[in-house]
Amino acid sequence: MSKVLANESSAKLNVKSKQRTVWSHIKKFKALYVMSLPGIFYFIIFKYVPMLGSIIAFKDYNIFLGFLGSTWVGFEHFITMFNNPDIFQIIKNTFIISFYDILFNFPAPIILALLLNEIRVVYFKRVIQTIVYMPHFLSWVIISGLFITILSPSTGIVNTLIEALGFDSVYFFGSEAFTRPILITSGMWQSIGWGTIIYLAALSGINPELYEAAKVDGANRWQQTVSITLPSLLPTITILFLLQIGQFMDFGFERIYTFLNPLNSGTGHIIDTYVYEIGLLNAQYSLTTAMGLFKSLIGLFLIMIANFLSKKATGNSLY
Amino acid sequence: MNSKLSTGSKIFNIFNYTFVTLISLTMILPFVHILAKSFSSGSAIAEGDVFFWPVEWDLTNYAYVFQDASIWRAFGISVLITVVGTGINLIATASLAYPLSRAEYKGRKLVLLGVLFTMIFSAPLIPTYLVIKELGMINTLWALMIPNAISAFNFLVMRSFFVQIPPSLIDAARIDGCSEMGILMKIVLPFSKPVMATMTIFYGVYHWNSYQTALYFLNDPSLYPLQVKLRQLIQTDDLNIDVETTMSAAFMNSTEGIQMATIIIATIPILIIYPLLQKHFVKGVMIGSIKE
């Protein structure tokens, strides 16, 4: 009995002395903690407060009452949202553009990296790499400017070519049919080279002995690619694919908005651009926050599915 | 190179070299085209004569841009937010990344998890706008710099670089009586030149190119950075296209030439810095990706 009591009291003492050591530890390295405070506050104020501020999707936001003081209205804004026929077009646009983006722009850097990897003239490879990385550093305003210029119906180089071949010039930026192809193509132009960096790094990490062994077995270049290169890349591909799925609904405001004009926006408006125009410009704060929340929920749902499938299929997962 | 290449291999090589050359041409030629247009006369542009070399060499487009005070102003604001903003970024990121790279910092897992969480769940636009508004930053240039002071991705890259610095080095400095700030400034940062160079280019390019933050948080046209100004120039013409034919040729053409000249001016800083920093950013991307 007394033994148990003694054990208990020594346990209590241990907890106390542990607290004391943690406290004295923090005191000892006070400078480190103080140094990290501004950064921690930054994440709380500009990331966590807005995240929690999403509750205004369930409230009627009033500037004077703030996030917490505004009155609750439940799912009213979500109902309003789904009663607006425009919303379905916007959600559909978001899904379609995102789907095409993954379909075309996810594999593109992998293919380019494989092709670059087969180039044996080092100097040539370096020059090509320098060139293809570059568009990543240009702003979307400049890229959209390039595309508008090149595709202009009267002075654009593409239409000059089309006319030279005897066809009528096409007003690419004035037609909703061309919005998505332009968005996807420009996305590829901007990011294909940049995307190769990680794959090239993974490729350079493959053990050369594997290729030697394959050559001895009589495998040609194509067979080596299929049975050595691609399997070695698979973990990288899976992780990047999961990250991409995680951003399924988040592919960038600037990237889309700079390409839109009143003539072509019908098929190009996405949730982000709609939230900006209706939410910020027309001050519909609660309604568009509801849309933002809806978007995040779909994104979360998708990443969970993708992660589950990938864990089952390849054993690779994000968490 | 192997001299006994099979026919299949030879055909593939020819195809491959041609293909990647074509891809890089699609990256360069639009620029050459725009450069050529910016140096061409209005009438040559209107005729569609300009391809990859200036026609009827003409400097009036640049003359116009250089005398337009609003373009200069926008250029100056872009330079300002790029320099000051990047400075804020580097200080803020390093002063969070350094403590969290040290084993002495108890509770760093919690903080790191908190940062990772913001990468998966991004802060929504409208509530972010309202927070910035509450802080009185709307219509100030601070709104372009403070709310993006730390990028979670860049922070993780920088931290994983700091982690590699041998702890014994830092202990030695501590024993010699160096303060934590002194350790960061005198030991960690000089050791981390490659990663700091990478961060400078990432943050710098971000500020120079940023368009949406200015669109969201500024209403005052006198504060607009270059990208917003450029977008306005391009957009107005984009919408006037169907009116083009009815407009006087001279006026319409000079608009396009001026746009091209402005695009070139907005691109030049990046094109100058790009080759200088290229060897660094590739390394930076890799540090960022390998650490996970």
TrEMBL record, chain A:
Pfam families xref list: BPD_transp_1
Domain (ABC transmembrane type-1) ranges: 91-306
Membrane topology designation: Multi-pass membrane protein
Transmembrane segments annotated in the record for this chain: 31-49, 61-82, 94-116, 137-162, 182-206, 226-245, 290-309
Location relative to the cell: Cell membrane
Family (UniProt): Belongs to the binding-protein-dependent transport system permease family.
Name under which the protein is recorded: ABC transporter permease subunit
Organism: Gracilibacillus salinarum
From TrEMBL, chain B:
Gene3D superfamilies noted in UniProt: MetI-like (1.10.3720.10)
Location of the ABC transmembrane type-1 domain: 75-277
Chief localisation class: membrane
Segments passing through the bilayer: 12-36, 71-98, 110-130, 142-162, 183-206, 257-277
Record CDD domains: TM_PBP2
Alphabetical list of SUPFAM superfamilies matching this protein: MetI-like
Membrane topology category: Multi-pass membrane protein
Signal in keyword set: no
Subcellular location: Cell membrane
The UniProt record lists the keyword Membrane: yes
This protein's UniProt keywords: Cell membrane, Membrane, Transmembrane, Transmembrane helix, Transport
Pfam families cross-referenced by the UniProt entry: BPD_transp_1
Membership in a protein family: Belongs to the binding-protein-dependent transport system permease family.
Record protein name field: Carbohydrate ABC transporter permease
Source organism per UniProt: Gracilibacillus salinarum
